[in-house]
Amino acid sequence: MTTIVTGYYGSGKTEFVLNLAMALARKNKRRVTIADLDVINPFFRSREREKELAPLGIEVMGSAIKNHVLQDVPAISYAFLSRIRAGENVIIDLAGGENGLNLLTSCYDAISAYQFLCVFNMYRPETDSPEKMVDFCKRINAVSQRTGNANAVRPLPITGLVNNGNLLAHTEARHVLESQNAVLMACNTLNLPLKYTLVQENIYKKIAPLLVSEKVLTFTKPQMRKDWQN
């Protein structure tokens, strides 16, 4: 299965990608590949956790340059496409916003079975209402076109939303639930499911019966903000 992940800048999409990859690796005991296609944001990229993920059976691909972790050169390797064609678990981590979809065009011919997830954090000003979330999804869908040949253009639309409502170290249970309500309203408008909730484990224990997403991913501490807690 190929999972494509997008979201507005600062939504926590890469945090979600890492936790999803770890959950898949634990569950299936099979190799998971993260395709880091973020050539826009110079920090908080999945490639920064390459060494920590390797022992878990998770490989991060992206740059074609050796020792690429801290380099900001848009030299993308598409070696992960062979794993998509083989039906392996591949998670494509796009850069934020519509521009992040530009590199996806080279993947269309390889993608068959897929899910396309959009991550939302209600506490980002650009997506702080259901209306803004809906508008963002519509803009993404307008850009995301799967081209088969010169005479056929098929959409590659978002298939589900993710609730990542948080205020970093200041997150409370109510924040997760308030964000859930907003994302659910966007889901209803778009006729899409709420596929995942990403929530810290100690908060999850307090509100587990109130979470309505199809799946919940929990974590004990953030993967991407170990030194950025505010």
Which helices and strands occur, and which strands form pairs?
Elements: E1 2-7, H1 13-28, E2 32-37, H2 50-53, E3 58-61, H3 81-85, E4 89-94, E5 114-120, H4 130-143, E6 145-149, E7 152-155, E8 160-163, H5 173-190, E9 194-200, H6 201-207, E10 215-219
Parallel strand pairs: 1-4, 1-5, 2-3, 2-4, 5-8, 8-9, 9-10
Antiparallel strand pairs: 6-7
Helix pairs in contact: 4-5
Question: How would you sum up this structure, described in words?
Answer:
- The chain has 230 residues and is α/β, with parallel strands linked by helices.
- It has a single domain, classed as P-loop containing nucleotide triphosphate hydrolases (Rossmann fold), CATH 3.40.50.300.
- Helices cover 28% and strands 23% of the residues.
- It contains six helices and ten strands.
- The protein has an eight-stranded parallel sheet, with helices on both faces.
- The mean pLDDT is 86.
